[in-house]
Design a protein that fits this description.
InterPro entries: MFS, MFS_dom, MFS_trans_sf. The chain is mainly α. It has helices at residues 11-14, 26-56, 58-62, 68-99, 102-121, 126-129, 132-160, 168-176, 178-193, 198-203, 208-211, 213-224, 231-235, 237-241, 247-254, 256-265, 267-286, 292-320, 322-345, 349-376, 384-401, 403-413, 419-438. It has a single domain, classed as Growth Hormone, Chain: A, CATH 1.20.1250. The longest helix has 32 residues, at 68-99.
């Protein structure tokens, strides 16, 4: 981290650990990776199931008094509220993760997410309690965002801090696929409930994916309780006890440039992902006449392919560095935006899947696989949780949360076309390309040193 500030920092807080922390056994590392992947899967299942519900049913259930377009926009806006809350979650849980520990903080985030998601599934609709229904929906979505804002940084961090130096990219990419396994679970359950007659789907079927969250969280809590605190955090606990200021304060004062860098880097990752998995599902089913089952099938196939692609790109980043892989993925997003929509228009499963492979499995997955190692390696151990979580979640607001809303508005302004939407992807991804060239290479960094 930067040390150019004029504010004096106690010497004991600026020193690296006297000795490198002991390496974990291979079995212990495997346990950490698996537990982080499962926990991240559950967290993102909870978060992403909301996106599918917003695209498919929330407009009718919670905003029935407005036009279909306005109802969809309102539903997507509530989806974005979760992203507004994510940086606040990064602040709160980043502070906790850098003070009370990574493991304890991750248990808190998992419990909080499960509670908020279950309550969404139990929420009365507009027809039952009127205006209170969308208000409570927004509140619960805010709580979801708050919790997931602290989950991502911690789940990635425990793996990166536990992994051998030459395998941080590959091992860190595995729990990152939790977003896809969560999407796979959410999409699979929605595909099943979508088979119900529409009246049953709208009355009770949509609730099932939310209510099942309670079972998943119970499993996740058991698994997460089995891991140990990371060796690097344990090695710095004596320094943490002597801390005179919040790690959040320290990050904003000393590392604000790194936070801005992470925010901009996230454009090429978040915009294509939420465009393809949320907006495109709604656009294809309402404007292009593609069946819901077909779109859900395409998304599920894309999620399955994401697992080997993440491991591949993560391993490559251990060999050639984080920056080259990141820049490659961002360039693919630039080149793949227009072909993605051309293939979507064909209403042909194979071609639509090919479009998703190009934009998501190659472009997005290259970026997404590298982010855990890339972002956490930018910071020292005392502020690593705060820095990675806050930077990533600030980027999530700008780049991810309102992408479905912005895309829907651009499409409406373009006479329900997609040219402006694809152009938006190209512009945001180009910004990330520039940021990638400006970013430092971090793959050889000693994580135990400040």
């Amino acid at each position: 981290m930067s040390s150019t500030t004029a504010t004096a920092i106690p010497a004991e807080l600026t020193q690296a650990p006297a000795a490198a922390p002991p390496a974990l056994s291979r079995k212990a590392v495997t346990r950490v990776v698996v537990s982080s992947w499962i926990g991240n899967t559950i967290e993102f299942y909870d978060f992403l199931v909301y996106g599918l519900a917003a695209a498919l049913v929330f407009g009718k259930l919670f905003f029935p008094t407005v036009s279909p377009l306005a109802g969809t926009l309102a539903a997507f806006a509530t989806f974005g509220v979760g992203f507004v809350a994510r940086p606040l979650g990064g602040l709160i849980f980043g502070h906790l993760g850098d003070t009370i520990g990574r493991k304890r903080t991750l248990v808190i985030t998992l419990c909080g997410m499960g509670m908020a998601t279950f309550l969404v599934g139990a929420l009365p609709t507009y027809a039952q309690i009127g205006i209170w229904a969308p208000i409570l929906l927004v509140v619960l979505r805010f709580l979801q965002g708050l919790v997931v804002g602290g989950e991502w940084g911690g789940a990635m961090l425990v793996v990166i801090e536990s992994a051998p130096p030459g395998r941080r990219g590959m091992l860190g990419s595995i729990p990152q696929t939790g977003g896809f396994s969560g999407q796979l679970l959410a999409t699979g359950l929605f595909a099943l409930v979508a088979l119900l007659p529409e009246d049953q789907m709208l009355s009770w079927g949509w609730r099932v994916p939310f209510l099942i969250s309670a079972v998943l969280v119970a499993v996740g809590l058991y698994i997460r309780s089995q891991i140990e605190e990371t060796p690097i955090f344990q090695a710095t606990q004596a320094q943490v006890a002597k801390r005179t200021e919040s790690p959040v304060t320290e990050v904003f004062r000393d590392s604000w440039r790194k936070l801005v860098l992470i925010m901009v880097l996230r454009f090429a990752e978040s915009v294509p992902f939420f465009l393809a998995t949320v907006f495109a599902v709604s656009y294809a089913t309402t404007q292009l006449g593609v069946s819901k089952q077909t779109m859900l099938g395409v998304v599920m196939a894309t999620c399955v392919l994401a697992f080997p692609m993440h491991a591949l790109f993560g391993a490559i980043s251990d060999k050639v560095g984080r920056r080259p892989v990141y820049i490659f993925g961002a360039l693919v997003a630039v080149l793949g935006a227009f072909p993605f929509f051309y293939m979507l228009e064909t209403n042909n499963f194979a071609l639509m899947f090919l479009g998703y492979v190009l934009l998501i499995n190659i472009g997005h997955n290259a970026i997404n696989a590298v982010e855990p190692a890339f972002f956490t390696e930018l910071f020292g151990p005392r502020t690593r949780y705060s820095g990675a979580a806050i930077g990533a979640q600030l980027g999530a607001i700008v780049a991810g949360g309102f992408t479905p809303f912005i895309a829907k508005a651009l499409s409406a302004a373009d006479n329900n076309g997609w040219t402006w939407v694809a152009s938006y992807v190209v512009i945001t991804a180009l910004i990330s390309v520039v940021a990638g060239f400006l970013a430092p290479e971090t793959s050889r960094r000693d994580l135990s040193a400040e």
